[in-house]
């Protein structure tokens, strides 16, 4: 009788243990949900930090429904600040260290591939070797790519608060990529990314922090700019 009671107690304990375990979270479904939410927005801010040229930080505002972006690039060595305004076909720049500096411009395609990603829901294949920069669509986490690649592992790493936003942390590993390790922070309420790190967290190759999803930014094309390659000024409006 005693042996039977012990067997019953053990069976009940094992059953309760199984019931108390939380179901495994499917990171691929989570990432596809975030891709869906990401493709609904048309504007946002990004703060990009890389080790390029001894250290560089870039603060960007994207207004993709109007086809324009504004950003300031800060380099550490040598110390300098440069202001940019980008459209689909034009890139303007001037020193941000000098008040009312004149703009120079160049005709250059594919300045707003980030916006192409948002507007068209486009996805990339394998990522390249360049550092993160404002003209690259891959500064946005490749949620659908990660979700559909069989070789990718997506692992939950807990939760953190990023600039006041409660976020889930996800580690992504894909040995087929040039940089195999990525970490993504996703807002628990809106499912949009709050932070994205390329490489090891202890020494990241690039970090992007996101904010201002859906905000409206008043970005204007310069009234006039000098186009060095065309050896002359041009009035733009």
Could you explain the architecture of this structure?
The chain has 237 residues and is an alpha+beta fold. It has one domain: outer membrane lipoprotein receptor (LolB), chain A (Clam). It is 19% helix and 38% strand. The chain has four helices and 13 strands. The protein has helices spanning 2-20, 27-38, 113-120, 143-148; strands at residues 43-50, 56-63, 68-76, 79-86, 90-95, 104-107, 153-162, 165-173, 181-187, 193-198, 206-211, 224-227, 232-235. The strands form two sheets. It has an eleven-stranded antiparallel beta sheet, with helices on one face. The protein has a two-stranded antiparallel ribbon with strand order 12-13. A hairpin with a 4-residue loop joins strand 12 (224-227) and strand 13. The radius of gyration is 23 Å and the shape is globular. It starts with a helix and ends with a strand.
Task: List its salient traits.
single chain, alpha+beta, outer membrane lipoprotein receptor (LolB), chain A, 11-stranded antiparallel β-sheet, two-stranded antiparallel ribbon, 19% helix, globular
